[in-house]
């Protein structure tokens, strides 16, 4: 199939990944190419050159609009609207069999566009006002929407999801996250370093539990880092940097425990699945889709409860590492995810052909 992947452009689609959405798009493009599809990635122009890139914008918008300038300002909105309008027009004229929309922008949801190119839209966030109405008006036989967990399905459609919406769990390639039989007694945390990911709470809990912890990830919010996280470094808490996949997998595989601290309605938690593939049991806040992803491989604490999280860390160390790995192999593999994506593409393409007949 000839497939357009339309990405979010806040960050570049390249390693080291800024977060789960960037990882999702990269692995989607890579996996579909490996399966023989003709893939064009509509993303920021500074994304990974291994893909055929059709730039939505010349560079990711956190470079064009730094942290202090990118939070809903009118110049940013105009910049993104112009980029996505032109990209959607090029997709419509490009002879694509299907577009997989990961953009979180309203234009690709419009039925005047999905009627031209069959579309699968993946929603990677909880519902929010700027997009909610456009999502609600968009389902059709030519347009299927996915969310990453059953919790998010209920959040987007509290009165019941339409037939054209379903859960599509994220998937990872277990070969990229090799299993380790033993850990070194330390804990790891990784993700975007921002308040809603809660690394300061992970650090405070690790200190309380007496378990050394290393934080990995991009410092997205420098003010938060300086005020809340940096003062907790030392006494067993360290920052390991923002690492690409292979290096991060190596660091995770050496640890004995993963700490997962969402402070928002986390739609999935890809970092938890990656750590579990390496064999790490998880101590987690019971927030968002954490329980759906982690299941029997973790111990849960009430959201933002540092004392309970410290206790969960100690308890989770007793969970056998194979339990974590086996859960990923059963539910969250890259091949399982790609199989489902291809089935959805065939479904919307067939519906379009039927309606055109």
UniProtKB/TrEMBL annotation:
<keyword id="KW-0808">Transferase</keyword>
<dbReference type="GO" id="GO:0016757">
    <property type="term" value="F:glycosyltransferase activity"/>
</dbReference>
<feature type="domain" description="Glycosyltransferase subfamily 4-like N-terminal">
    <location>
        <begin position="19"/>
        <end position="176"/>
    </location>
</feature>
<dbReference type="Pfam" id="PF13692">
    <property type="entry name" value="Glyco_trans_1_4"/>
</dbReference>
<dbReference type="InterPro" id="IPR028098">
    <property type="entry name" value="Glyco_trans_4-like_N"/>
</dbReference>
<dbReference type="Pfam" id="PF13439">
    <property type="entry name" value="Glyco_transf_4"/>
</dbReference>
<protein>
    <submittedName>
        <fullName>Glycosyltransferase involved in cell wall biosynthesis</fullName>
    </submittedName>
</protein>
């Amino acid at each position: 199939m000839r497939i357009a992947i339309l990405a979010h452009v806040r960050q570049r689609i390249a390693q080291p990944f800024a977060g789960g959405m960037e990882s999702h798009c990269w692995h989607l493009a890579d996996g579909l190419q490996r399966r023989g599809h003709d893939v064009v990635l509509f993303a920021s122009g500074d994304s990974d050159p291994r893909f055929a890139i059709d730039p939505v914008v010349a560079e990711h918008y956190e470079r064009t609009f730094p942290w202090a300038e990118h939070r809903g300002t009118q110049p940013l909105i105009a910049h993104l609207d112009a980029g996505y309008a032109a990209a959607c027009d090029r997709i419509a004229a490009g002879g694509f069999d299907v577009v997989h929309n990961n953009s979180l922008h309203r234009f690709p949801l419009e039925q005047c566009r999905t009627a031209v190119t069959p579309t699968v839209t993946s929603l990677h966030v909880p519902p929010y006002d700027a997009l909610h109405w456009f999502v609600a008006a968009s389902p059709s036989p030519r347009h299927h929407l996915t969310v990453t967990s059953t919790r998010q399905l209920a959040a987007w459609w509290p009165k019941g999801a339409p037939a054209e919406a379903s859960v599509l769990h994220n998937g990872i390639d277990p070969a990229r996250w090799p299993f380790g039989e033993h850990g070194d007694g330390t804990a790891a945390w990784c993700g975007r370093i921002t308040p809603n990911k809660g690394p300061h709470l992970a650090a405070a809990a690790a200190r309380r539990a007496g378990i050394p912890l290393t934080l990995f990830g991009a410092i997205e919010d420098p003010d938060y880092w300086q005020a809340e996280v940096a003062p907790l470094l030392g006494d067993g808490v360290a920052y390991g940097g923002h690492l690409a996949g292979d290096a991060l997998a190596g660091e995770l595989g050496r640890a004995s425990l993963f700490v997962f601290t969402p402070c928002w309605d986390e739609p999935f938690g890809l970092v938890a699945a990656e750590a579990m593939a390496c064999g790490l049991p998880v101590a987690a806040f019971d927030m968002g889709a954490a329980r759906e992803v982690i299941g029997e491989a973790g111990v849960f604490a009430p959201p933002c409860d540092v004392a309970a999280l410290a206790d969960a860390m100690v308890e989770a160390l007793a969970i056998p590492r194979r339990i974590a790995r086996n859960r990923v192999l059963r539910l969250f593999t890259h091949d399982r995810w790609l199989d489902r994506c291809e089935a959805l593409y065939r479904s919307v393409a067939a519906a379009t052909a039927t309606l055109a007949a």
